[in-house]
Amino acid sequence: MPAAALAAGLLALLSLGCATAPGERWATAYEARLSGHAQRHSLSCEARAGCDLLAAHRIRAAEDEFLARLPRSSNPEEGFVGDVDGPGGRLPPEGYGVHAPPVAATLRSFGLSARAERGRDLAWLRAEVEAGRPVLVWLTPACRGSRRVTLRDASGRPFVAVPWEHAALVIGDRPGRIVYLDPAAGEAREADDVSFDAAWALFDRAAVSAAGPAAHGPPQGEGKGP
Fold first, then answer.
1. How does residue 19 score in pLDDT terms, banded at 50, 70 and 90?
2. What is the pTM of this model?
3. Range of 43's domain?
4. Alpha-carbon span 4 to 10, nearest angstrom
5. Coil, strand, or helix at residue 8?
6. What integer is the mean pLDDT of 92-116?
7. Mean pLDDT, residues 59-79
8. H/E stretch holding 92
9. What is the dihedral of CA 26, 31, 37, 42, to 10 degrees?
10. Which parts of the chain fold into alpha helices (H)?
């Protein structure tokens, strides 16, 4: 093989090896655009993450406006449970939070085509974020361990709750790691696949997805969203 052709081939291989994966590009772009907005209340992580998902799709909403549209219930599958300013780590009927179906419905009220998901896996999650579609997921803070507890609401219907329930917006991935925007501090964090999936599994791998790429991706250099 001529030396020039060999050199060109080596350069091509090097450029492929140095290319940034789609999940990493999205994580970097969304972190620059969406980070810096911590939740306003001790238990408003779902509302803050919901506003971040709306902002990713070019829809502006205030966190308290999102909270006002969430239904209230003694069952987190039906609405927000308890005092949004209460202490963390509790179980219904004390201050707890809300699960995926009411959050998806509230997102739709803002005009976003959102859908509650359950029983998904990391392959699905990676495919979504690598296509530029952030996903709202249910975890525990820092993906630490917890337990599932079966309770009954005011009507006697059973539901599962998890102490230290938390929600976050997955914005990208890296090899062996998931990148998510944590509303507790308004900052991007990473978790290894095993720790992330174990925390996610406590909630039956519940999520809220939104159809369609986010306006072809956030432009480079764009400022932070709301």
1. low
2. 0.86
3. 37-210
4. 10
5. helix
6. 97
7. 97
8. none
9. 80
10. 3-18, 22-34, 45-56, 63-69, 100-109, 122-130, 193-201
